[in-house]
Description:
Strand content: 35-45%
Protein name: Outer membrane protein
Structural class: mainly beta
CATH architecture: Beta Barrel
Strand order of the largest sheet: 1-6-7-8-9-10-11-12-13-14-15-18-19-20-21-24
Region (Disordered): 45-67
Number of strands: 24
Helix content: 10-25%
Largest sheet: 16 strands, antiparallel, barrel
Radius of gyration: 37 Å
Transmembrane segments: 12-34
Keywords: Membrane, Transmembrane, Transmembrane helix
Amino acid sequence: xxxxxxxxxxxxxxxxxxxxxxxxxxxxxxxxxxxxxxxxxxxxxxxxxxxxxxxxxxxxxxxxxxxxxxxxxxxxxxxxxxxxxxxxxxxxxxxxxxxxxxxxxxxxxxxxxxxxxxxxxxxxxxxxxxxxxxxxxxxxxxxxxxxxxxxxxxxxxxxxxxxxxxxxxxxxxxxxxxxxxxxxxxxxxxxxxxxxxxxxxxxxxxxxxxxxxxxxxxxxxxxxxxxxxxxxxxxxxxxxxxxxxxxxxxxxxxxxxxxxxxxxxxxxxxxxxxxxxxxxxxxxxxxxxxxxxxxxxxxxxxxxxxxxxxxxxxxxxxxxxxxxxxxxxxxxxxxxxxxxxxxxxxxxxxxxxxxxxxxxxxxxxxxxxxxxxxxxxxxxxxxxxxxxxxxxxxxxxxxxxxxxxxxxxxxxxxxxxxxxxxxxxxxxxxxxxxxxxxxxxxxxxxxxxxxxxxxxxxxxxxxxxxxxxxxxxxxxxxxxxxxxxxxxxxxxxxxxxxxxxxxxxxxxxxxxxxxxxxxxxxxxxxxxxxxxxxxxx
Length: 537
């Protein structure tokens, strides 16, 4: 029997042998897995295979891009809304629901039919390209096509903004391209992002401009020259590039506090609305007047008169505006008043436009149109073109109240009115009792609907934000639009067919039942319900 001390000795030798064998086998793995320590440099010489040591500041510069690099930022939103109107509404003069601005006069059978649609086309997509802190380029587009009543697959992108700005210092800025007009730059609260209550207040929309801003204490001073045809564009003008004078706009913003801004602006231009030397109707004729070719008995006086008739016709256009934005806690308010003449085009936000007519039509449509006799007969057949300049005053006011961080309500209202409606083209009385064909009836034949002399828009809004970048909203609008009728068909003159003041004789007529005529007032209620996801940074 083996003694116990010898057994203990034997077990100890075995355990020691197993431990040494395990250490020998696993020591290479332990050495590989362990972190390697840098060997200290004994001398001041750095080996060629080791890069030079970097300071912490130099390492941070390599990790963060320098300020001179180009940086990109995606902007915009995805927006879809369901739109409904109980009567026909016009969007920049077109009969659709994409961005309604006014009610249409009831001249077609379907104008009193309700209509609805779903519109994702007012979504925005853009990018900001920055080069350092002083230079930035902005591109922005939506997919609205107001010439179409539905948003089909043929709808194309539409440029809203494309410009760049350069800030050499914190007080000075230069901008060039297509951006929001320097004139009348206050936009009311509205979820109709394409129109912004266009026909009832905001004249300034977008314009190709070259301008600058300068900060002076609590004031911002701006000035720009721009394309004349984008807003100030009478229909009789065919080519905006033929206007040698651009629009000239100035603006002053005053920020007495961080919650209040007062602004005023002005714009002016001289429009070339008739150019006999280059009008297409003169093709095939001599470029310059030669009396010997037209009148063998011409005199210097008749030649001078003919030369004057061939000169370009120009009219003045422009306006002034006063606006404000004010924030008091959860309440925010915006408002603006503008006054001007000839400030409209199809894409603008006003209703005034240069009216072209003849002396004959002007007399026939006036309250004296029933007069007859040699003098009035000669005047009525005159086809000499006359250009009238409607003057317009507009204003809007909107409020937005943030009930909570996620819920808010608001109201808005605006009015546009022509102050000299006597120069407007009126609707022909004889056509008002007839239902028009199923085709657009405004720009193609203004005598069917008459020119717009006044427009109102009142609305209520409510929104809910379940997330930071998601919003669901509802907006109602009530449009009331007044159209011009021919003056001679109102009052006592509506009963007179003709009257010769020289002989004192005339004829009476039955004006008919006024209740069967198309009303000069168009009214429509609209509803927009939708949501948007904004991915602006």
